[in-house]
């Protein structure tokens, strides 16, 4: 076989599948080929999201197997499904690339979804390519190439213990990689304390960067002159839309490859757009309409983060309501800090709180309430449904269990809408502790954030469009467009 370099190998494949080879792909291909032939063998490839970096690395794996079928490649990813996706992609390339027809084995058991062994002269115990999740046991495995493809994602780096565990698991690669083997990290930073950082974070206990000494190739979406790295797919208007949608923190992290401190989230209450208007509910021609400041509302989200305890002590039990208008604007209409009266000995605390929520839902015409069931909240959904049924309030109860770190959840929820000035806030909200929580909030701090957490839940929740007129008799029509059809609900009367 005539030796062929990796850029040509990638170009032939792209021609076969009807794709072009953009400039940044050619740059990746030349860099990977040069590092494979001349070293060094410890590499970091960072490129903006949706840049095709994993596709290029998959082609690289097929290319090196074409030149040396005895190679063993291990793919590590944040989860097994992601690692298996790259293995499947390499299998597809080997099956269809005109230069790799003899690599596919005849035996089906050597061509599995998560690992495969190509036709090779050597008798080796390890497969040609195998997929592993970062939490898998890799003890006893050996590899000539280890590819760490998106091992850092929010689920593996959104808290200090997770970041420490990720680093410990990645340290096992030293015992898998054969002497002289190649180690390649592929990804984007998801934390200020990213494993891809150029500088040591002394406050995190680092004396040197985690990938100290690795040769790096970084391709951000925009160069120093503001020119797009892939103008055909990411023209200026699309870049502006991504920046607006994701917010400055996420854009800088995922598209510009800059490790971002979570404390840089724009939790500035001065960015809120104040309004005084109240909800206007009207019916005409059997059609209900809910509006605010002359704008028709089309959806709502309501989030209750419950807590027990004496008033003024411990965590606050907070319920928040957010509406969305026809133009996609956000209206934070109410944030209520719930309390119970210990003097009411005949009504228990949980029932009092549920009745407060029922009144909140009724007054604001809310179609559903999302209840965070972490901890004590898991006992409340049935009780809340009972109170809704007793008061003839046609409202669904949606149960969720939050698994993401609260600090990251708050930043993700508020960053984009505050930066865009898209969040309107009713004057009544300014009389609650919510605004003080915004001004004083620091990630990892010990200040109160119960109101922030409830509003973040509203911002991140998808509007629940459930029909509301079955099971109980409603006193008003459904104000949401298309929401007036009767249907069975989960209420027990």
Short descriptors:
16 strands; Nucleotidyltransferase, domain 5; Rossmann fold; seven-stranded mixed beta sheet; elongated; single chain; nine-stranded mixed beta sheet; 2 domains
Mean pLDDT: 88
* Helix count from the secondary structure assignment: 12
| Reported CATH architecture of the largest domain | 3-Layer(aba) Sandwich
* Biggest sheet descriptor: 9 strands, mixed
Helix content: 25-40%
Radius of gyration over C-alpha positions, nearest whole angstrom: 28 Å
Number of domains: 2
SSE diagram, text form:
Blueprint (H helix, E strand, L loop, with lengths): L5 H11 L6 H16 L3 E6 L5 H15 L5 E5 L2 H17 L18 E2 L12 E5 L9 E7 L4 H4 L2 H11 L6 E11 L27 E5 L16 H19 L18 E3 L4 E5 L2 E6 L2 E11 L11 E9 L4 E9 L10 H15 L4 E5 L7 H11 L5 E5 L5 H14 L3 E4 L7 H7 L9 H11 L33
Parallel strand pairs: 1-6, 1-7, 2-4, 2-5, 5-6, 8-16, 11-14, 13-16, 14-15
Antiparallel strand pairs: 3-4, 9-10, 10-11, 11-12, 12-13
Question: Your description of this structure?
Answer:
- The protein is an alpha/beta fold and 493 residues long.
- Mean pLDDT is 88; it is low at 464-474 and 485-493.
- The strands form two sheets. Strands 8, 9, 10, 11, 12, 13, 14, 15 and 16 form a nine-stranded mixed sheet that branches. A seven-stranded mixed sheet has the order 3-4-2-5-6-1-7, covered by helices on one side.
- It is built from twelve helices and 16 strands.
- The chain is elongated.
- The longest helix has 19 residues, at 236-254.
- A hairpin with a 2-residue loop joins strand 9 and strand 10 (287-292).
Briefly summarize what is shown.
The chain has twelve helices and 16 strands.
